[in-house]
Design brief:
single chain, 59 residues
Length: 59
Amino acid sequence: MAYIDKIKEEIGWLKVIFAISIATDISLIAWLVENFKKEDPFLLLIAALGALLLMFVII
């Protein structure tokens, strides 16, 4: 049973990391949509690349 408990604990931590990644990605995309016209294009490009990188990490 100890091995099964270790695997369950690891899955629990992966769920937390997955939820944090999704929340961060959604927040970053929302910021991009809100500030599309206001911010510097370079900053928007970096934020878009960060959002894409997070999407690939989540997948």
